[in-house]
Amino acid sequence: MHIEEIEFVSEGCRLRGLLKRPISGSGPWPTVIHGPGWLETVGDPLSVSFHEGLVSAGYAVLYFDLRGFGKSEGEPGWIRPLDQQVDIRNAITYASTRGDLDIERLGLFGFGGTGGGNAMYAAARDRRVKAICAMTVVADGVQWLKEQRREHEWVAYVAELERDRRSRVLGEPGALVDPTEQIMVATPERKAKGMPVRGHEFYLATVDYLADFRPVDIVGRLGKCALLLTCVEDDVVTPEHHARELFAAAASPKRLLVQRGVSHYDAYSVNYDVLMAHFVDWYDHHLQTGVRTVAAGRSVPADVVDVPRQRAVAPVASADELIG
C-alpha cells in the first residue's frame, strides 16, 4: 500500500495525517475517511489492519489527527465532538481537492466511543457522504458516562463537575484529569488488557462537551446515507443498547452486526475477518453499486446480523509499521 503524509486546514488549525491507497491500478479511488475516535491518533496500531483491509479492496483511506491530537495543531486536553465533526467535514472538502480521490464515492469510518457518532453528525450535515461503517458506538454521551458508575459515584461526579464549573467562571484554571479513569472508567476488562492510561492531561470540563453528544438525535437525518453499525453483546465498555437505539432511530439502508461470545477489545482482532468482509461489502454496495463480492459471498440481506465469535485472530500491526 502507498502511504502519503498529508495536511489540511480546519478552522485555522493545520491537521496532519496519512493518505493510504492501493499501489496497483489508477485513481480516482473510492475513498473512506476515518475520523479518529476516543483518544485515538494516527499512531494507534489498532486502525492499521482495518485500513489495510480497505486498501486491499481497492479503497483509499484518509486518516488524520483531530485538532489538539497527535501531530495536528490545536489546543490539547479537550474532547469536543462538535469541533471534531467540523474537522471531518473539512477532511471531506480536502479530499474533493485531490484528483486521485473520487468524492462521488465517499464513505466514513469510525470506532471507539465518539468516532462512529462523529461520522453520523458529519454525514447528517454533508450529503457528499454515501455510506458509514461505525463500530462500538455511543448514542448518548451522558448516558454512556453515567452507566459506567454506580449511583452514588455518579452523584459525587456531578457535584465535582459543578465545583469545577464554579471555579472556572471565577477565573480559576479547570481541573486536569486522566480521561481513561476520570472521564471514562477503568473497567476490569480495560485493566486486564493493560490498556494505557493518559495521566492528568485532559480538562474535566470535557464532560460538558460530551454531555451534548447525542448521535441518537440526528441519526434519523442521514437521508440516503447507508449506515452499518456493530456492537458487542454484554459489552461493559460501550453497552450494546447504544447501537440498538441508533439502529432503531435510523432510516434504511441500515444494518446492525451483533457480535456474540467476545469482549469489547477482543472483538477488533478475533472478529476482524468477518467484520472486514461486511465493511467492504457495505462500501462496495453503496459506493460502487456492488461490483465486488467478498469472503464467502455477499452479506446476508438481514437488517440485524448475528456474528458469533470467530476462531482466527488477525495480527495487529505495530505503530512502527505505519509508514514504510
Question: Can you describe this structure?
Answer:
By secondary structure, the chain is of the alpha/beta class. Helix content is 34%, strand content 22%. It has a 9-stranded mixed sheet with strand order 1-2-4-3-5-6-9-10-11, sandwiched between helices. A two-stranded antiparallel sheet has the order 7-8. Helix 1 crosses helix 11 and helix 2 crosses helix 3. The N and C termini lie close together (10 Å). The C terminus is likely disordered.
Summarize this structure as a short list of keywords or feature phrases:
single chain, 324 residues, 22% strand, two-stranded antiparallel sheet, 11 helices, 11 strands, 9-stranded mixed β-sheet, alpha/beta
Strand fraction equals 15-25%
Tally of strands: 11
Main sheet properties? 9 strands, mixed
The main sheet orders its strands as 1-2-4-3-5-6-9-10-11
Computed over alpha carbons, the radius of gyration is 19 Å
Unreliable stretches? 290-301, 313-324
The helix-and-strand class reads: alpha/beta
Distance between the termini: 10 Å
Average of pLDDT: 88
Helix content: 25-40%
Number of helices: 11
Order of helices and strands: EEEHEHEHEHHEHHEHEHEHHE
User: What overall geometry do the principal axes of the alpha carbons give?
Assistant: globular
In short:
The protein has 324 residues and is α/β, with parallel strands linked by helices. 34% of the residues lie in helices and 22% in strands. The strands form two sheets. The chain has a nine-stranded mixed sheet, with helices on both faces. A two-stranded antiparallel ribbon has the order 7-8.
